[in-house]
Structure formats: C-alpha cells, structure tokens
C-alpha cells in the first residue's frame, strides 16, 4: 500500500528530523520539508501540508505576497494551524490520506503544500472545508527539474468524479464537495478524511524523466482509486451512503 506515514503535529518552526523510516534505495537524507535537496527516482522526498485560514498564508494579509509555511515571517505557529508531513517515493503514484481524530478540516479552511527553503516551493491555497462544505479528494503535482523541486500545484478535473444523485455538490466548477454536516466529525455518517493523490513531473537529478503524471492522466478515466483497494472503500463508499 502506498499510503505514507502521516504525522499531524502542531506547527513548529523546527521539524523533527528522521521521523520517517528510510527504505531501500532512498539516498535523500533531507528529512525536513524546509531544506533544499536534489532527488533521484528511487528517493523519498519530504514535503508538508499546512492547514489554516486562507489569509494566514499571505504576508501581512497582502494577498499578492504568498510565503512558504517554512518562512518564519508567516508565523503560522501563532495561529490556528496544523501541519502534516509526508515522504512519498519519487515517481510512484501515491494516495496520501490525512486522517486524525483531532483533525477537523473546517476549523482551518485551506491547505498549502510546501517544501524547500532557498528554493522554496508552495502550492496556491486550496479550499478544503468550511461549515457548509468539505472537499475530500485532491490531486497534487510535484514538478522537478534536474531533481530540484520547482513547483507544486493542484490539478483539478472539474467535477467529473462528483457522483450524481447524491448530496455531493460541485463548487466553482472545480471541486466535488460534500455537506460538512454529514461528516463524522459533525455527527454524520461520512468519513471526511482527505485523500491526496500525488503525481510527479519533470526530471530527476540524472535527467531521467518522471512519468507518474503521464500515468495519472491516462489512468484517470479508470478511476485511480481502484489501485488502492484498501482505501477505496473508505474514500469512495462515503458517497454510497447517499444513493
Ligand atoms: C502588496 O504587495 C505588493 C507587492 O509587493 C505591493 O505592490 C502592494 O502595494 C501591496 N499591497 C498592500 C495593500 O500592502
Ligand atoms: C463555504 O464555501 C463555499 C464555497 O467557497 C461558499 O459558497 C459558501 O458560502 C461558504 N460557506 C460559509 C458558511 O462560509
Ligand atoms: C480514519 O481513521 C478511522 C479511525 O481510526 C478509521 O475507521 C477510518 O477508516 C480511517 N479513514 C481512512 C480514509 O483511512
């Protein structure tokens, strides 16, 4: 199974090093998401997801200056926020899951994926949940050039996966969302754990092409969740409860 160890911890400027077991073939010894590194295809790569209200990701509330959560000027640690760290294997399609009994997505609102310090990359803030709606399914693309992370972005496919005949709604023509009141954290029947599918693009430090993005594009028509049979029931059967 490709789910990576999830560590949900209160945000801190310094991250614990080496909380992830290194596996065979992993030559990347950067374990903090706030360090720079170059990777090759067999490596693990650490990145973080920060959860907070949207304005917390911008410097001085100026929404044209988005900083990395690694940048201490954001002082996320002084606000209501959470961080999850992941260490997926480069170029392997992975489905990450954020599942913590203490994690209630609508108390934060948005999430940003981030890694690196001098070469800091961060995704735009993605809406996760408010008191009305919760989005549980995301695709994150990690783009590398010569093994250095260049870009992180959310890939949307409209609402093609949004089941018909259910209480799911399509928000802004891009995210399939379910009513927050139906989530287990709010006394409802639905497991609103977040599922984040990863894809890699670009090249590693030996200029080998990273192909998993190509695979995701081609697999999407068959529903990628089929690859993760043990997650499938928890991530997609939630919709069945409405049929
Ligand atoms: C926000 O930042 C931009 C770029 O630094 C600057 O041009 C603009 O004046 C700032 N806006 C406010 C309201 O501070
Ligand atoms: C929640 O977010 C949706 C989509 O952005 C928006 O339409 C709705 O008004 C928001 N609800 C609340 C209570 O903020
Ligand atoms: C989340 O955790 C709960 C309790 O441990 C478990 O029952 C549920 O299946 C988990 N959901 C996912 C998507 O892993």
UniProtKB/TrEMBL annotation:
<protein>
    <recommendedName>
        <fullName>Expp1 protein</fullName>
    </recommendedName>
</protein>
<keyword id="KW-0732">Signal</keyword>
<dbReference type="InterPro" id="IPR044248">
    <property type="entry name" value="DPH3/4-like"/>
</dbReference>
<dbReference type="GO" id="GO:0046872">
    <property type="term" value="F:metal ion binding"/>
</dbReference>
<dbReference type="GO" id="GO:0017183">
    <property type="term" value="P:protein histidyl modification to diphthamide"/>
</dbReference>
<dbReference type="GO" id="GO:0005829">
    <property type="term" value="C:cytosol"/>
</dbReference>
<feature type="signal peptide">
    <location>
        <begin position="1"/>
        <end position="24"/>
    </location>
</feature>
């Amino acid at each position: 199974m490709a789910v990576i160890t999830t560590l949900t911890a209160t945000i801190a400027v310094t991250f614990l090093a080496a909380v992830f077991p290194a596996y065979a073939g992993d030559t990347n010894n950067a374990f903090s998401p706030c360090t720079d590194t170059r990777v090759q295809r067999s490596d693990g790569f650490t990145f973080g997801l920060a959860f907070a209200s949207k304005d917390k990701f911008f410097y001085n509330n100026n929404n044209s200056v988005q900083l990395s959560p690694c940048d201490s000027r954001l002082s996320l640690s002084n606000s209501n926020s959470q961080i999850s760290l992941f260490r997926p294997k480069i170029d392997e399609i992975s489905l990450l899951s954020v599942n913590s009994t203490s994690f209630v997505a609508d108390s934060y609102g948005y999430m940003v994926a981030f890694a690196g310090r001098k070469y800091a990359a961060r995704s735009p803030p993605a809406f996760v949940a408010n008191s009305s709606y919760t989005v549980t399914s995301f695709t994150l693309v990690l783009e590398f050039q010569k093994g250095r992370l260049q870009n992180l972005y959310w890939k949307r496919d409209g609402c093609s996966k949004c089941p018909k005949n259910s209480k799911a709604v399509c928000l802004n023509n891009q995210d399939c969302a379910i009513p927050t009141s139906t989530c287990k954290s709010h006394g409802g029947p639905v497991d609103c754990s977040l599922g984040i599918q990863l894809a890699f693009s670009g090249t590693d430090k030996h200029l080998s092409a990273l192909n998993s993005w190509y695979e995701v594009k081609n697999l999407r028509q068959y529903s990628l969740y089929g690859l993760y049979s043990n997650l499938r029931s928890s991530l997609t059967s939630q919709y069945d409860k409405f049929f």
